[in-house]
Design a protein that fits this description.
Chain lengths: 314, 251
């Protein structure tokens, strides 16, 4: 029986959530909602409040103000935890237990029946390619293997909701890809996933919606594609010339908002890419230069992220 | 207030945590050896050269071993889990902080009970009769639980360094050994010494063990057992209340 009033279509409802550490407001009155079955990304620079938010939602730390509910249950309550699987940032499995014993221990904590836990544990370890190493101590596992095991631990109780804090951070490409494929498949089967990540490409490819948090406040929330397109002036042209040119001279061209030197190339940010192409052609002709390459680039989610977090930081 | 079903469910999960603790922290050779050998050698170093009877010494040895084993690991489990980054995962599972703490206490309790068999077997092997085995068993159960709860109190400061918790434990544990009637019978202590002895739970365990093994004690057995029960209740309440406050600060 849910213990707070809630919209049944929502998996997470957060209103005015706040956490303070002394004078520092780590999370500053944030509000958002995640729909059931949604894969929601929570992005932000280091120290923005992502992990503090996830810790409040998973009941690891208390909240100072506001309310939060998970599938209709008060965040942090035993009922909310029972329907939730968590992969915390930098979490460890017990290195002195085998992978299998770590999994069975987690199943016991969720009250999963022994037979069911064994079946599900076998299925999960096979899915992540760890079944042949199940009886090895976790201390002998690589970082990627540990992270795959912790994901299995988060899934052993077949939770309706998953909280994943930087699940692929620092992993090799193979492990990261395996985890991301698994997340896509889980989400396709209806699982709600709340994911924090630094990897913009990952967020862009996985998430249906993302929120960007900076200095404890949500600065933007939308579908990645919409967020990317709403960042005005973030179109860019990447150009290289037969000879080095002065970036200051390029910055003076009409319509250029900013210039970045990238090796032997220059990236020019503009709101009017078409007009800038014409200006560049004129510039190279008048200076006796030859354009070696010219590419137009649409704004990326990373561009949106940098712009939004820098804007808020000022 | 949890319902009966929830309380039973949480108790089962405490037992799962206790089994995990025993597998990880207790079933290691050095821990068992340290739990047994250290109190034995400490005991011998104070008794060699003194003309004490075996039936006086064995209750003291039993008290020392039970006290040191039940408080050996309980102070360091939570700091260890903090340092090893396993605590956050545990706290995100559907277990109350009190369930985690009770699990850690139960592991120390079971370890203390198991190890206490060693001095009991030595006592019997030396031909010393146990006059009240049922009371002694009850005292060992209460004593092991009480000392396990006491040990857990030492890990309340939110440190992730097991050595810090161990240092706090040592500052309290060693003085308690000397004021609890193990080396000097309570009857021979001055009145101020007796007054101090009564604040130590080890005093009541040693006294009831003397009743059951040597047939003589200073305090009535019922008072000894009630005192152990009262200390257990106080320590357990403090453990759960204070850990509940400090545990989120470890993350």
């Amino acid at each position: 029986m849910p213990d707070v009033e809630s919209n049944s279509n929502l998996a997470i409802e957060v209103n005015d959530l706040t956490k303070r550490y002394g004078q520092i407001v780590a999370v500053d009155h944030i509000s958002f909602a995640v729909k059931r079955g949604e894969l929601f990304g929570f992005l932000g620079p280091n120290g923005a409040g992502k992990t503090t938010t996830i810790r409040m939602l998973t009941g690891v730390i208390g909240l100072d103000d506001g309310i939060a509910s998970i599938l209709g249950y008060k965040a942090g309550s035993l009922k909310a935890k029972q329907v939730t699987g968590v992969l915390p940032e930098m979490a460890n499995a017990y290195p002195d237990l085998s992978g299998w014993n770590n999994l069975m221990f987690t199943a016991e904590l969720y009250g999963v029946a022994v037979r069911k836990a064994r079946e599900k544990g076998t299925e999960l370890l096979q899915a992540v390619g760890l079944f042949s190493r199940k009886d090895d101590l976790v201390s002998a596992y690589s970082k990627g293997m540990k992270q795959r095991l912790i994901l299995c631990m988060a899934l052993i109780s077949e939770p309706q909701m998953l909280f994943l804090d930087e699940p692929t951070s620092g992993l090799d490409v193979q492990s990261a890809r395996l985890i991301n494929d698994m997340l896509r498949s889980l989400n396709a089967n209806g699982k709600t996933i709340f994911l924090t990540t630094h990897d913009m490409d990952e967020a862009n490819q996985l998430c249906q919606r993302v929120a960007i948090i900076n200095q404890g406040k949500i600065v933007a929330m939308d579908a990645p594609e919409k967020l990317r397109l709403t960042t005005s002036g973030m179109h860019s042209l990447e150009v290289s010339f037969s000879e080095p040119v002065s970036p200051e001279a390029l910055a003076k061209l009409p319509g250029v908002n900013a210039v970045k030197t990238l090796g032997d190339k220059y990236r020019l940010y503009t709101a009017e890419p078409g007009e800038l192409v014409a200006s560049l052609v004129k510039y190279s002709a008048s200076n006796g230069l030859k354009m070696v390459s010219l590419n137009t680039l649409a704004p990326t989610l990373e561009d949106a992220f940098v712009t939004l977090t820098e804007r808020e930081g000022k | 207030m949890p319902s009966g079903a929830t309380a039973l469910q949480q108790l089962r999960r405490s037992l799962a945590i206790a089994r995990k603790d025993i597998r990880i922290y207790y079933s290691k050779g050095p821990v068992v050896i340290f739990g047994l050998l250290f109190p034995v050698f400490l005991f011998l170093s104070f008794l060699i050269g003194r003309h004490l009877t075996v039936d006086f010494m064995m209750p003291g040895l039993l008290g020392m071993i039970l006290f040191f084993t039940a408080t050996a690991i309980s102070p360091i489990v939570v700091p260890w889990e903090t340092m090893g980054r396993t605590l956050e995962r545990l706290m995100s599972c559907p277990v109350a902080n009190g369930t985690i703490i009770l699990g850690d206490i139960l592991a120390s309790f079971i370890f203390g009970l198991g190890i206490s068999l060693v001095p009991i077997i030595i006592t019997l092997a030396l031909g010393v009769a146990i006059s009240s085995p049922a009371f002694l068993a009850l005292a060992i159960i209460l004593g092991a639980f009480c000392f396990a709860c006491l040990g857990n109190l030492f890990s309340i400061p939110p440190t992730n360094l097991p050595a810090t918790a161990n240092m706090i434990a040592s500052v309290v544990k060693f003085p308690l050994v000397f004021i609890s009637g193990i080396f000097i019978p309570l009857d021979e202590l001055p009145s101020w010494g007796q007054a101090i002895a009564y604040v130590s739970p080890l005093t009541y365990f040693t006294d009831v063990a003397r009743h059951c093994i040597a047939g003589q004690g200073h305090i009535p057995v019922a008072i000894d057992l009630l005192a152990l029960l009262a200390f257990s209740a106080i320590f357990l309440t403090l453990d759960i209340t204070l850990h509940n406050r400090t545990m989120p600060r470890r993350i």
